Amino acid sequence: MGKLSGIRVVDLTQFLPGPMMTVMMADHGAEVIKVEPEAGDPARVQAPFDSYGGNEHSVWFANLNRGKSSVVLDLKSEDGKAALRDLIGGADVFVEGFRPGVMKRLGFDYEAVRAINPAIVYCSISAFGQEGALAHHPAHDMAVQALAGFLSVNDGPDGTPVVPGAPSADLAAGLTALSGVLMALVGRERTGEGAYIDCAMFDSLLPWCAHTAGSAIAGGESPKSASQRSLGGAGFYQVYKTADGRHVVLGGREIKFAKNLLTALGREDLLPLAEAPAGEQGELIAFLRETFAAKTRGEWVEWFEDRDVAFSPVLDFREAFDEPHVAERGLIVEAEGGGRHIAPPIRFAGEVWKPAPVPAKGGHPG
Predict the structure, then answer these.
(1) Which residue from 79, 15, 98, 119 is spatially nearest to 109, judged by alpha carbons?
(2) pLDDT, tens digit, for every residue of 154-166?
(3) Which of 120, 197, 217, 238 maximizes the CB count within 10 A of its CB?
(4) Residue limits of CATH 3.30.1540.10 in the chain
(5) Pick the CATH number of 237-309 from 3.40.190.10, 3.30.1540.10, 3.90.1150.10, 1.20.1630.10
């Protein structure tokens, strides 16, 4: 039995933040009922596809919806509304990801749902929250990152922002919503009372800049990547190109790492620069760029093997998934009948996790 066995979740979310949250609950035993429109969650049709238990599913959809059951309901019809009310009556958690105001128009805002089930934990996930000037502004992940300041430091050497590699606002919201719901469930054990959680992607992402945007948080200027220790202004937290056109990184600014590397390279004289303020390490960065450009990525991996330096090669996803570490940690798991899943990041000692089947639209897992 999983840690959340006995918890029933009614899940009206689609795409990424909500399904990521509820699959983490399903992975640990919660009964998650995915309520879909006739067209289904749009992620169902997102390529690429693979065979999961003999059925073709989107890899995206399978990895975020395994272990759930699916119910197709038309929430604009009386039959659909009645069916959803029945589900709510026996649920512990209700999660929705529509734009603010939609659930009220459908007759399933928090007040209406609480009237059916006073102990329910209700979570709304949106881009900017249920109230405020931006509440109704349409936005997916990158637009939220842009408005929260994060995209300004997701830039190249010329200062031009680039499309981020990770949907951080989506994922921050999924994790924040999960944490809020679990807190509310713990609190309900003491008080018997449910709760309402207004989870915004913007609000969830904003605390992630505490270590980089201190000057702006304190009311001053915004940090610039080229002069910020964790964003490109430091030699030992930097990306370097190798002789074969690939890349490696130095990912630790502790002075012991700088000393170990610079001593091995015969340039202890540059050690004071490794301790200099970010933005004043130009000579050090130039030396390291020239140095790394002299060997291939593979040669550097071999060279660093017995050295205590925070160094890593930049791998693509195929290379990353094929790393022995992934196999040793059991991070890619093949389901019974086929189909590969990324294992949940939360796993408990003594428990063996196996991916549950992926639900067909309107059906139980299978």
Answers:
(1) 98
(2) 998 888 999 999 9
(3) 120
(4) 237-309
(5) 3.30.1540.10
In the annotation, is 86 catalytic? no
> Which candidate in 27, 92, 141, 170 is catalytic?
170
Please report the pLDDT score of residue 364 as a whole number.
62
Give the pLDDT confidence score for residue 227 in this predicted structure. Answer: 86
Do 211 and 230 meet the contact criterion of CB atoms below 8 Å apart? yes
Map tokens 């067209």 to a residue: 39
What residues contact residue 310 under an 8 Å CB cut-off, 6+ apart? 236, 250, 251, 252, 254, 257
pLDDT in tens, 89-136: 999 999 999 999 999 999 999 999 999 999 999 999 999 999 999 999
**Residues paired with 199 in a beta bridge:** 125
| CATH number of this structure's domain 8-208+332-342, picked from the four choices 1.10.357.10, 3.40.50.10540, 3.40.50.720, 3.40.630.30 | 3.40.50.10540
Q: What is the pLDDT of residues 40-81, one digit of tens each?
A: 999 999 999 999 988 999 999 999 999 999 999 999 999 999
Closest CA to 96 of 116, 77, 120: 120
State the span(s) of the chain assigned CATH 3.40.50.10540: 8-208+332-342
- What does the block give as tokens for 206? 């904003």
H or E element, residue 205: helix 201-205
